[in-house]
Structure formats: C-alpha cells, structure tokens
Amino acid sequence: MNTRPYINNAPLTTPLLGRSIHRMYELFIAPLSSTEDTRRKEFILNTILCVVIALLTILDCFVGRGVIALGSSYEGIPFTLFTAILLFFCYLLLLSRKGYYQIATYLSLGLYFVSTTYGAIKWGVELPLVAISYTVIIVIASILVSTRFAFLVSGIIAVTISIVTRLQVAHEFHPLLYWKYETVTMRDPVELSIVFFLITAVSWLSNREIEQSLRRARSSEQALLEERDSLEIKVEERTKELKETQGEKIQQLYRFAEFGKSSTGIFHDLMNTLQHVSIHVGRLDENMPDSPDIKEHVAKAVTASKRLGNYIATIRKQFADDDALTTFSIEKEIGEALDMLRFRARELDITIQTVIDDDIMLHGNAVKFYQAILNLVSNAIDACEHTTQLRVITIIVRRSPDQHHAIVTIQDNGCGIPATVVESVFATFFTTKSYGQGMGLGLSQTREIIEQLFNGTIEVSSTEHVGTTFTISIPLSYTHASPELSHSQATDTDDM
Predict the structure, then answer these.
(1) Looking at the whole model, is its pTM more than 0.85?
(2) Rounded to whole angstroms, how far apart are CA atoms 5 and 3?
C-alpha cells in the first residue's frame, strides 16, 4: 500500500523539492545587478563559485582521508591549506552576493593563479594539471572580465612559467617529481576530469547567457518591427484623415474664392443701382410740392439709400485685397467693422461697448486692419452666443504708458477657450467651433496682419466659461495724419 501523501494527484515532495531548488538558486546564484551584461557575468561567477566550492569540499574530504591514511608519508597538498582555500572561496561567494562581484572575480582569479603557481613550484611546471589550470584561468578571465584582460593574464602566466622553469632548471628549488615515476592511479583522471568539467561548464554558461541575450535581442527587434509596422499603419491612416480634412478645407476656400470673385460684380451693380435711386429721389425732393409729409418720407428714403451704400462699401472692404498704405483712424475702422456686425449682435442680444480714450491714427493698410478687427469681434460674438449670462463685448482703445504703442483690447464674457488648446488658437486651420461653422483661418490671418503688416503683437488670455481677451499692441512709429485728412478719407469712403 502506497502511503505517500498526494495533493491533486502529485506527491508533496515534488513542489517541496522545486521550492527548495528555487530557494537555493535565489540565495546563492541569482544575479543582483541591473544591466544585462553585468547580470550575465555575475550569474556565471556565482555558478562557478558554487561548483568550485562543492568540488573543493569533496576534494577536501579526500585530502583529509589521505592525511589520515598515509600519516607522515603523505606528500600531497596540506589539509589545512586546502581547507583555507575552500573557506576563501566561500568568502568570495559571500562577497559576490553582497554586490561586490567584480572584486570577487579578481580575487578568485588571483587565488586560482596563486594556487596553480604553488602547484608548479611544488610539483614542477610539467605537471599536466598545472597547464590545464592556467588554461582555465585564461578562459575565466576572458568570460568574466574581458578579452583584453585575458591577454594580460596570458602574458603574466607566460612570464611566471618561464621564471619557474628557469629556477627549476637552475636547481634553485627542487620540486617533488615522484608523480612521474608512480603508477597511474584513479586520482589522476579524476583531477583532470574535474578541470575539464570546469572548463566545459564555464564555456556552456557563457554560451547559454549569450544565446539568451541574443534571443531577447531578437525578440526586442521583432517587437520593434511590429511596432514600426503598426506606427506606419497609424501614420498612413492619420495622413489619409489629414488629406481628407485638407481637401474639405480647400473646397471651402475655393467656394469662398469663387464667391469673392462674383461678389465684386454684384456689389458694383448694387452700388450703381443705389446711386441711380439716390439721384432720382434727390431730384424728386427738389421738384415736389411743398408737403411736409412727402418731404419727410423722401428724406428718409435718401438717408436709407446712403446708409445701404455705406453697408455695401463696408462689405466690399471686407473682401478687398488692397495693398495701399495710408494714415487711418483706429476709431473709424473699428466703427465700420461694428456696423458690419451690429445687426447680428442685436439678434443675439449682445451688447458691444467701445471705450476709446483717444482717436489714435495709424499708418499702414487700413483694409487689413479692418479685417483683423472684424475677425476678432466676430469670434467674440460667436463665443457669447453659447453663454446664458448677460452678453457683453468691450472694445478698449488706448495708448501704452510710454505713449509709443496703440493698445486695442477686445474682451468678451463668452464660453472661453479650454486651457489645453489656448496656445493653438492662432494655428492655421485650428478651430474650436463645430464642423461647418469655422475653418480656422480668421485668427491665423489676424496674427499675420498684426505681426507682419504692422510690426505689432497679439496675445490671448482666456478662462473657460468666463471669457476671452485679445490684446493688440502696435508701435506708433509713423507720422500721424491730421484729423482733416482722416475726415476727407471718411468722406471718400462714404461716397463709394
């Protein structure tokens, strides 16, 4: 009857043995370094030390038995010295586990070199185990340190063998050569087998770690290739989306361009028609009977026709691409822009306030300045449309404290701009409006006008659900025209 305990049809000794082996591995061999190359060398060193300690323990037992069996006739390595070497290797393993694996590496190579040299002096350099041991030292130095260090060790070994051989030939010391004349025993192949096994184990561990590193490198390379392919697909998809978006924007721009071309003729025909209406109504006013009611209606008709003419002139100005540089009034251009937007503001119950401390004159492109103000006020109206509080837009015109700049501030209490995108509002095609309500060109054109045509600056500050403020600063570096010049320009505009 089988009385061995089982859990889930598996003997209890199996997981216990596995846990014990894993615990021993974690305690004596598992590397603690952070980098992969260092971990590989530390793992090999710890494995070698553990194997050497195990072999030295077995050999120490044989040495102790030989000392006891042979007594004073024993001519091998002293038991105390062999035991000291075993304890020193244990100390090296402890040193490596404390994080000083490099020091442990050099000390272990040094100890192995001293032990082998001691064997060469005591039993002669022609002892086969001496040559093989020196070979092991070179192999371990190459794997655990570097190839350059292995060449240095090879040179030191060559010099050491030459010196020991010369001293031995000169009879400076007399090694024990009894082993040459003794009958071959089983101890000799056992010792050689142990050394051969050590060389093979070191080479296997090195190759094993290198192969694992190569596998990890290939795995990482494959992951990078897959990530690259994934990124290429994402880039292609994103590029396709951007091309589609740009295509839609270009189509919208094309429609605007076509409208701009056709609007020139439409506005010209409307102006001609209004001029004929104004002329005939004026003549009717001159030749009609003296009737107060009729004259009042005719005067209103004349005023309405002139006002309509001014609106059409303002609309023509919005689509104009005039490069002429003139001296113009900031107050007048702001007034014309507000005339264009006043009806829409009134429909949305938006109050537009103007605070103009001084009628500041600027020299530059009046049409472009008008378009910049129009864009900013139009955006302010759009922002106020989505708020339920009292809707107010305030336009402030003043001089800077140093009197060298004109400051125009347009502030609203609308929906505001999210903090995550406020720095991007001047980018081309960027818009916070719903699809079809904006193209993202107004603010980019406004900044271009202010910075390139007037050498000024435009800044924005906004708080979501509170409001937005645009501040324009333009240097007053030109000679201002007289108010009479400005008045004549206004008269010419009204008569267009």
Answers:
(1) no
(2) 6
